[in-house]
Amino acid sequence: MSLVVYGHRIEVPNSACFLDPPDVVRTATRGQGTKIPKLSEVTRRDPASDWIRGHVTHTTSGTVRRLDSKSLIESVRDWAYARYNANVDHKSWTLTKDLDESTLQNSDPGTGASWHAAQVNRYTDGWELAQTQEGTLTQIQLDGYVRLCDEWSYHCGIPRVIAWRDGRPFAGMLTRALSAHGAGASLCLFYGHRNIWSANKDTGRLYAQRGAGDPSDLPFLALKAAGYMCLDVEAGDDLKLWKELQASFGLDPDGIPGPMTRAAMIRAGRYGTGGMLVARPGDETRGEPAWLRARPLAWKQRAGLA
Hints:
Number of domains: 1
Strand content: 15-25%
């Protein structure tokens, strides 16, 4: 079973995507819903930017901030949301992670930007975590979320960084997500819809697009437990880190770890074949990252990787 990134198949257990036939989708959803047809690809997207910079996590109800008492809840909510994703006309997202092990993908983030978080869309990829009717998440779901983040970070080139402050995940506004401050162009990390605010066009007053439960701290605590780097992004600690690393490679220290920065990390031989600042289990077998495979030979030659 696999998902697709930049046109390349990525093996992920208990997953199916819009390229798969119905029997694969049924298997991914634990054999339930025998009438489930082929997944539809979401086409309501904007042109993709040159590279994916950040990932935005969403939850389907955006409320309740606790773990369910059951570690696993068998569900076909991901299919219901995937079908909704394919048909609704005002928003879209890349994939849905269910309460059990399954994941269903509606679009390739490397070929277009989903309509999931307003001004940051062009620079980000967005997922939905399915919730119960009570608004809870499950432990099995969060374990799968971490594994998905491991794959996505490696193959999209998103740094394994989360926003942190005062000993916990940062739930407030990330200023650099505002349109007036780059619309997320310099936010290269995993963050939440709760961190994205907008300005009223008439008054200029700032408002949160979603509440503090979209998502709660739970996904980011799971990433921290997996070793993802916790930085005070609102204070600019991520920019400082990347500028120092870029300067050590002789690159323009702009604080934004783009493809050339990742190529330098790969050339340095200290960050593995994926150029990841934080290593995760499985990196050694993931091979050439999808973002790099999608680059033309001339670019790889300029970057010293061919």
